[in-house]
Structure formats: structure tokens, C-alpha cells
Protein 1
Amino acid sequence: MCNCILLGPPGAGKGTQAKILTKRFGIPQISTGDILRAAVKEQTPMGIQAKKFMDEGALVPDSVVIGIVEERLVKPDCSSGFILDGFPRNVEQADALKQVLLRTGKSIEHVISISVDKEELLSRITGRRTCRSCGKGYHIAFDPPEVPDRCGECGGELYQRDDDREETIRKRLEVYEEQTAPLITYYGQESLLRNVQGTGSIEDIQSEIVGIVEGKGRNT
Ligand code: AP5
């Protein structure tokens, strides 16, 4: 069983690592960012409400995202494990997650905090490209597609996210420091936290995370 949270600033590699873990362990990635972007694309009432917060680099209201996660965690594909990517984002969401887990008889085994310095984060996010069809992520310099602007997995078109402009990224990084970074202490006090240095190859970072999930990692 792998019930884990990937914690880290924008661009730390949460989504990249979650997608690889999903394939390896056959468990779903629950990315609140991906769910919200899909709602924005479909112009659902939730998407219309969320868009203005996302475009500003602010957090979408807790009531919206907590509802999304609660609904998602009870689906049958979460019975063998799940990877929370981008949730919780503040102490209120972490407290709400505890209640949801209590109600559903689940628990978190690992909170993996991925750290990367700010300049590297900026360069990662500005170079990020994502496939419109399958969601696979690329980086124009560090992980480029074989054919420019085309996904190597499905041939879909690659695009740049609306909130990946430099001004919005700086705001997202501030929001991370103010609201999300306190969760490092929160989960440290619960002895769930594992720290992973997020610089280096995607494969080396994946091996370290797999070691933690499989119980071979050191507690930090
Ligand atoms: P969300 O989609 O969650 O974005 P984020 O947390 O800001 O994280 P990112 O997706 O930017 O980065 P990542 O860590 O996944 O990095 P990635 O793997 O892509 O949230 C977006 C917005 O939605 C929020 O601002 C908020 O408005 C809203 N939202 C979402 N969840 C919410 C919540 N719980 N509460 C309230 N609001 C919420 O990698 C980045 C790039 O680096 C890629 O190009 C990748 O190829 C490259 N890369 C990855 N690893 C490496 C490596 N080791 N070396 C070199 N390059 C690498």
C-alpha cells in the first residue's frame, strides 16, 4: 500500500514524479491542479470560479479543493493506494484531510517533501511544456520532446500553462513559502516527513522516492 503526499514548491517535480510512481505502483495520481485545469477547460461552474485564483497565482478556496479530494479518495481505484500531488496546500487543508481519512478508514504513510532552489524552479517552470491530449510533461531544455512541440507518447500538441508566466510564478512561489511550507513542520511533527533533494536526474530522484515508498529510505 502506498498512500503518500508529494509536497514541494511549484516546479519541484511533483507531477513528474507522481506520473512515474503511478505507472510503477498502479495507483492513481490525485493532482488538484490537473483536476482544476480540466474544470477550467470545460468551463464548469467550479472551473469558472477557480480560474481567477489560478491566473493570479493564488490558492483556490479550501472549500472547493477539499470537496474535490474527498470525492476522489472514495473512488475504488484508491483502494490500493494514491499519490496526492499539490494537496494539501495549507494547514486548513491538512486538517481537513485528516478528517476525510478518518471517515474513509485510510491513512497517510509518507509525506515526501521535494526541495529545489528558487532559480532552478523559475527555469523549470518557464521551460515546462505539457501535452494537451495525455498530460505528459516536458521541459524544453532538460527533458525535451523528440519532435518539437509534439508529445513523444501520443503525438498530442504541447502547450505552456497560463500560470507559467514569470510574474505569476513569483506569486505562486510566495504563496508556497507563506502557506504551504509550514506543512513541512506540520508533517515533521507527525513523523511522516521524508526529505528528498529535487535536483539531479529525474531517474535518480525517482529511485530515492521509490526507496522511501518501499520502506528502504532513511527517516529525516
Ligand atoms: P499545481 O498544478 O498543483 O501547480 P504547482 O504546485 O504550482 O506545481 P507545478 O505543477 O507547477 O510543479 P510540479 O512540482 O508538479 O513540477 P513538474 O513535475 O511539472 O497548481 C496550480 C494552481 O492550481 C495553484 O497555483 C492554485 O491556484 C491551484 N491549486 C492546485 N491545488 C490547489 C490546492 N490544493 N489548494 C488551492 N489551490 C490549488 O516539473 C516542472 C518542470 O520541471 C517540467 O518541465 C519538468 O519536465 C521539469 N523537471 C521535473 N523534474 C526535473 C528534474 N529532476 N530535472 C530537471 N527538470 C525537471
Protein 2
Amino acid sequence: MRIENDVKLDFNDVLIRPKRSTLTSRKNFDLLRTFTFMHSGRTWTGVPVVAANMDTTGTFEMARALSAHKMLTALHKHYSVQDLQEFFSTFDQPDFVAYSLGIRDEDFDKLEQVLDAGLGDNFNFIVLDVPNAYLERFVLKVEELRALCPKHTIVAGNCVTNEITEEILLRGADVVKVGIGSGSACTTRRMTGVGYPQLSAIIECADAAHGISNPETGVGLVMSDGGAVYPSDAAKAFCGGTDFLMSGQFFSGFSQSGGVLVEKNGEKFKQYYGMSSKAAMQHHYGGVEKHRASEGREVLLPYKGDVNDFIDELFGSLRSTATYIGALKLKEFAKRATFLLVHRQLNRSLEQYE
Ligand code: 5GP
């Protein structure tokens, strides 16, 4: 047994130090980022905030709303080939939608059907998603996916440490998804004891990814996934060096989100559940398999209306952070940021693990 003594940080363990700024107006701040991906060779410009591939957030309705802001939606994997055919017949924004799959044989069989149906040009991103990217089988599946889809930008994860970040990139992913146990609807930390504070995971994995490059295209990238509760957490994630930010919580509870709308005592609520919660497993697989424990939970969130209002708030907050730290572009957040360690002043982290 070994103990790592250096302190690992969550978003609520830090604040960002204000710095001298030459920004004259928040409007001048550039939220767009342009990346050239190391394996696919594609160049992408957009706001690097992504709706998670959960069936409560990665919906067709969300993709229509977010693409108008140049944001990406990772569609959940439970849409049928026919659902996808119908959706793509009226949605033509391949840069702002991702197809998601897991590593089961049936996931790869379905991807082949999707490609055979001629839908491959309708999405430029593919998210290969498992809760635990440390499995040998996972990295082999990254290689298999890269061979099957050489021109797609592959996002793969999840992991939280440098060595596996490097391996996933070297096996063929363009972007590594970072986060274990950080999700708001996730109970992995409580059920298994495994996890890594999200801000430290970002800092460590981004450092590893940015050190891996293809001289003709670009460097390896990371996508922080989970744990962002407030817009300030998005700012902290970008300051910590993440290239993309994926969130479920940010995009849950809206009219464009999935989940059932419930009315209680005249107030409206919307269901949000983890993809391995009993609710999700019951819905998609008819129950929790015997050898598995559910590592997700279900919550009812106050109904929040239209997601466009939240997007305005998120963009406004990022612009405001930019004026405080003197960043002219989102790209400069990581360069400009100095974090101050604070004593969990918002005291959210324990709440979050409940
Ligand atoms: P949030 O934005 O809600 O904090 O986190 C969203 C992320 O939580 C998802 O993108 C996914 O990585 C993770 N997640 C979603 N459902 C589950 C689940 O049932 N169990 C676990 N362990 N993680 C989940």
C-alpha cells in the first residue's frame, strides 16, 4: 500500500485570483476555440462545452438548441438506427453532434449498421464511453474504433491520470474524457471508494495530453466530464487546462432535456438520472444485472424551462471571469489563471457525494 500525500483538488477547493486586465468590454471576449485534432486531422471551431451522452441530456432537441450556439451534443447511445435516420434527415450540423457508444459487441455492431445506413457523414465526432477506461479491453476498442472510423474525431474515456491519458491518445483517440466519480448523478465514490478530485484530474491529464502531438496536425486534448455545478466551475475547468467541458448537470431539467416531467403540489420537476442508476438500467435493460451494482442515482430537479436562458448565463459568466483575469480568449484562461487554495468555502463537495 502507498499513500499519495499531495493534496488533490476539486472545483470548490480553489478560487481564481483577479489580475490586471486590458479588456474594454465583455463582448470582446472570444468564446470560440479552434482545434485541429491529432488523428482525424479535422479542424473544428466552436464553443467547447458539450452536453453529456446521457439520455436525460444527449437528446435530439438539445442538439438542435446547442448547435445554434456552436456547442456540441453527444447523443445518448439508446437511439435506434431509425431514430437517427429520421433526425439526420432534418439536422445538418455534423460539427456539433457526436455519436456515442460503449465497448460491448452490440455497440460496435450498431455502429456498423449506422455506417452502412450512410449516416457516418452526419456526425464528425464519436464518443467511446465507459466508466472505467483502465480496462485492457477498452484501449483495444479505441484501436478498433480508429481503424473503423479513420476520419472521425474520437473522444474516449473516462480516466483521471496521466499514464492512461497518454495510452488512449496513442491508441487513436483525439480527445480523452476525464472524470471518475465526479458526476452529480454518480455514486461510484460511495459504492466503490474509487475517484479523483476533478480539478486535479484535469490538470494532470491535460498536462499529459498536451505533451503528445502529431507534428502535422495537433496535440492530444482532454474533455473534463462531470462535477461542474455552477458556471464558475466551467471557468475553473478551463483555467485548469481542459480543452472541452462535458456536463450533464448543466443541461438537465430543461424542456430540451430527456426525463419525465413531474408535477408536485403545483410545481414542475424533471427527472435526471445516472446512466447506471436503477432507473436507467430498468428503462433500457429491464433491471440491474446480478453481478453489477448500480453506480448512479436519480434526482428530481426543479423544471428550468428553455436551455437557451442557461446558455446566456453560462456565456455571461465566462465573459465575466475573462474580464477579472484579463483573458481576451477562452484559450488564454489556462495561461492567465492563478488558483488560490481555499477551505472548501462553498462546502459543496460532501453534498455532491451524497
Ligand atoms: P454531471 O455533469 O452530472 O456532474 O456529470 C455527468 C457525467 O457523469 C456523465 O457525462 C458521465 O460521465 C457520468 N455519469 C452519468 N451517469 C452515471 C452513472 O450512473 N454512474 C457514474 N459513475 N457516472 C455517471
